[in-house]
Amino acid sequence: MSKILRSNPLARNSRRAFPSGVAQRRLVSTAYKLPPSYNEPNLHYRTASPEREKLVTALSKLREQLPISVPTVKNGKEIASKDEQHTLMPSEIATQFAKYSPATKQDVEAAIAAALEAKQSWAETSFHDRAAIFLRAADLVSNKYRYELMAATMLGQGKNAWQAEIDAAAELADFYRFNVGFAEEIYTRQPTLHAQGQAGKTDWRPLEGFVYAVSPFNFTAIGGNLISGPALMGNVVLWKPSPGNIYSSYLVHKILLEAGLPPGVIQLVNGDAEMITDVVYEHREFAALNFTGSSDVFRELYARAGEGVRTKKYRDYPRMVAETSGKNFHIVHNTADIPNAVKHTIRASFEYAGQKCSACSRIYIPESRAEEFWKEMKDSLSPVKVGAPEDFSSFTGPVINDKAFKKITTAIDSANKDSQLEKIVGGTYDGSKGLFIEPTIYSAKTLDHPLFDQELFGPVLVAYVYPDAEYDALLEKIDTQGGGLALTGAIFASDQKVIRKTEDRLRYAAGNFYTNCKTTGAVIGQQSFGGARGSGTNDKAGSAGMLMRFVAPRTLKEEYHKLEDVLYPHNY
Ligand SMILES: NC(=O)c1ccc[n+]([C@@H]2O[C@H](COP(=O)([O-])OP(=O)(O)OC[C@H]3O[C@@H](n4cnc5c(N)ncnc54)[C@H](O)[C@@H]3O)[C@@H](O)[C@H]2O)c1
Ligand SMILES: N[C@@H](CCC=O)C(=O)O
């Protein structure tokens, strides 16, 4: 028995009060303090740096294995894939990247049954034992698997070294570490007011049933968070990753198993999204959807869950948790530092080919500074290179797949011919070897152009040059356009009154609002992330709020004295 346990009065009391080992463990666990969370330090991958060498080695090792066969994992056991389906490498479409076996309906049913079987024992595992698994996983991400995860994210999802570093290494490790801290904070939320002769407490129960996690292609870390948050709170999870990141998602799962996650707790199933969803939505134990992806898909999933609720299909009202699309804006005020605004805009709009929900895709520029802005933009874009992620001189890479390429390039073709748009840069693409699209900017003659409302999820930015005197009216328009989405926004200005006014007037236009800083790049533990309106349920990834959606608190009260009478004093 540890020193802490021996000297802990709560531990001693609980041992007397609860003969069952399980209840005893659960109570004493809150008495320990876990290590503080910290952000994973970023490595920079400069020429000849040790990290660059390790990454290059991991990239060539992965290349030799292409197409990589992704095993099916059933209840923690790897089964060789029959390789019926494959994905392509976005930067080199002649190369198959991953091969895998899609799950059948029976596989999905079996995975749900196995998760539910693992549920009780996982829910009874003490919080500190669950936390240890995720802290160990964070360590595996930042050390043993760092380069393997990054190589998978670079070749499979088309991220360059820096983008892979912040996603697959730093953000993934950060989610694991910070979620443990957030969970600890939740568990210590206990009633502080107790009337004499009684005591109250809150039992932070996991949900009954299972959580369905559905993740997008663009961030390896997001899938990792969608599954680990609920699991950390004692839930079991069925995980359907995107077909666009099957291999990196497999690695995330493998790391959790290696870190000690009991095999049944998170069940990974690849395959047809609609079939898998059908099986889940038919199940009485469906307790929550944890979704990140496009708003249109979420609307469909939300509506279907509503129908199941109406017909009393489920025991509970399944929780709907989602972070979805964005049509994010930069506002440049005439007091802005233009070079700073331009650099931030290039990063926000074109890093990772604009494939971030937080990417800036609409910008408003004051007439008095427009010429300066465009000159600075063209100068700053000239060294920006579009190319394969393995080429370390590439600033940005390909888009994820043929469907995305077609959607974005169709919009570009039509924009190139649109008399209401003036092309500032780009407007070209080349899909012959990889799915590459040049950073593209159009200046619209009217604020009502449909491009201000459509999420393209590519490197396309639409601008409007506004008369300086019409700033207030512009704010009203910004608030109402953007296709009903409200994820991220930013103001570039040096006038503090303008900054304050903009923040106030656009209070509901973005869930994450930045001043003199780009719309992308929220850091776990520093800026929790998510938007409202059409952009999601705004539970904020990287916060205790998100974890709260995966607990069903129970309030307990115990009285120590006896009730002396039935009648009230005034009854006599
Ligand atoms: N707000 C955020 O935090 C955030 C983060 C990343 C991505 N996104 C959004 O995600 C989108 C890009 O990612 P994507 O292309 O992977 O999104 P997507 O909506 O196409 O797919 C997301 C997930 O849903 C699944 N899916 C698709 N159709 C489905 C259906 N009919 N039933 C059940 N599941 C279905 C996909 O297979 C995938 O796993 C963008 O809209 C982006 O803004 C949002
Ligand atoms: N959280 C990330 C975006 C994730 C969506 O794709 C950011 O803040 O840039």
Write the layout of secondary structure elements.
Blueprint: H1 3-7, H2 9-17, H3 21-29, H4 50-64, E1 68-69, E2 72-74, E3 77-79, E4 85-89, E5 92-100, H5 105-123, H6 127-142, H7 146-157, H8 161-187, E6 198-206, E7 210-214, H9 220-232, E8 236-240, H10 246-258, E9 266-268, H11 273-281, E10 286-292, H12 295-310, E11 319-323, E12 328-332, H13 338-350, E13 360-366, H14 370-381, H15 402-416, E14 421-425, E15 429-430, E16 436-437, E17 440-444, E18 460-466, H16 471-480, E19 485-486, E20 488-492, H17 496-505, E21 512-515, E22 532-533, H18 544-548, E23 551-559
Parallel strand pairs: 1-5, 7-8, 7-10, 8-9, 10-11, 12-13, 12-20, 13-18, 17-18, 20-21
Antiparallel strand pairs: 2-3, 4-5, 6-23, 14-17, 15-16, 19-22
Helix pairs in contact: 2-3, 4-7, 5-11, 6-8, 6-10, 7-8, 7-10, 8-9, 9-10, 13-14
Bound molecules: nicotinamide-adenine-dinucleotide and 5-oxo-L-norvaline.
EC number: 1.2.1.88
Protein name: Multifunctional fusion protein
Keywords: NAD, Oxidoreductase, Proline metabolism
Fold and architecture overview:
The protein is α/β, with parallel strands linked by helices and 572 residues long. It has 2 domains: 103-324 and 537-555, Aldehyde Dehydrogenase, Chain A, domain 1, CATH 3.40.605.10; 328-533, Aldehyde Dehydrogenase, Chain A, domain 2. It is built from 18 helices and 23 strands. The strands form 7 sheets. Strands 14-17-18-13-12-20-21 form a 7-stranded mixed beta sheet, sandwiched between helices. Strands 9-8-7-10-11 form a 5-stranded parallel beta sheet, with helices on both faces. A hairpin with a 2-residue loop joins strand 4 (85-89) and strand 5 (92-100). Mean pLDDT is 94; it is low at 1-29. Bound molecules: nicotinamide-adenine-dinucleotide (NAD) and 5-oxo-L-norvaline (A1AUG). 5-oxo-L-norvaline is lined by residues 218-219, 356-358, 520-522, 529. Nicotinamide-adenine-dinucleotide binds at residues 214-219, 222, 240, 242-243, 273-274, 277, 292-294, 297, 300-301, 323-326, 357, 455, 457, 487, 536. Pathway: Amino-acid degradation; L-proline degradation into L-glutamate; L-glutamate from L-proline: step 2/2. It comes from Aureobasidium pullulans (Black yeast). The active site is at residue 323.
